[in-house]
Batch of 2 targets.
Target 1
Amino acid sequence: MKKGFTLIELLIVIALLGALAVGLLAALDPFEQIKKGTDTGVRNTVSELHGAIIRYYAIKNKMPWGTTPINDVASGITLYISDIISTGELKSDFIQLAGDQLSKITLVGTSESITVCFKPDSRAFRTDPNTKYLSNFSETTNNIANCGDPGTVDFHCYWCVK
């Protein structure tokens, strides 16, 4: 009597393990995880920038842009960041550390208020309670429902810190 597995038995086990691996890969969705990681980094940069601007205001009693209201996408943010860095509220290498994340951040402010936002890529951030601001940075009337489908490119709401 010979002990061991037949070729059929081995093929069945390999097929079952392959099916489990495919199911696990589909459940984890690696591309979604990458987007979620990127959004987490941008969210942290948004929060850090917002806090630094609030601290700048507390020190100088004015916003970095003065009394002129701004609705500025990344192009001018670095000018304000340089002024904030000079007061010591951000690290001197903040712009290099933030890298291309600054291009995803929108800064809207007046002489007394600040809103820092970004448009999330991942479904997890698109369904986050803070993702409820329209392109004019006003809050939607019924949160996420007015933003479009979180799973599509037509999603048009922003994650903001006010």
Target 2
Amino acid sequence: MREAPADAASLTADQEAVASAGLKGMIPMSGTGERARPFLDYVLSELADAGYRRAALIVAPEGDGPDPLRQYYLGEGRPARLTVDFVVQAEPLGTADAVWAASRWVGSRAFVVLNADNLYGVDTLRALRHADGPALPVYERDQLVRSSEIPPERVAAFALLTLGPDGTLEDIVEKPGQDAMEAAGPRALISMNCWRGDARLMEACRDVERSSRGEFELPMAVRLALRRGVVFRGLPALGPVLDLSRREDVSRVVSRLAGVEARP
């Protein structure tokens, strides 16, 4: 998000400031004259619509200056429909490490983990909440691309899934590359890094080894949990999944959210 594309995306001054700070979830989604709702408000609103009542935001340690995210959610942006807590990840060591940082907050409960820069849809989040044990939403590649308006080449950086005949997860390959994704075909099964887990997934996040990119990654922790015998059920899901990964996504996501009321 901090990197401006070659054909510099058109952002407002407020959006530019937040993007430059790398605070994807705090990028304003409304236009001039409207209340500047950050993208994360829509994520939290969907969670509340799906019946969730508690959420933890994984954040970096507080620095010398004010933290816009904490300031907002402890002040004017404090949600009315769910309780938001802050969990500190001491260092940015990857998504599995971020989940493990929340282990004390989660305790012995089942939990759902999702990206703060993706909007998955209420039906998907509700299905995860009602799932009987570990689970994940499963998308078909071309339907996801069409409904979400995601550039097709970007899907190669998502995770490619293999499900068994009974609909349970057999394998996951993070960032398989364009050739592997094309070989899997238009109905290739995709993960958008949204999971329901329990203590066994949390333990795998604790124990997983670093990836080739030097991080502790959640898909690799899932593979470790699979090897340990944990069963993850694939829940068929439909897009769109609004993805706010890059600056060029901002105008598209703002347009898709026009007229949508965020009520976290």
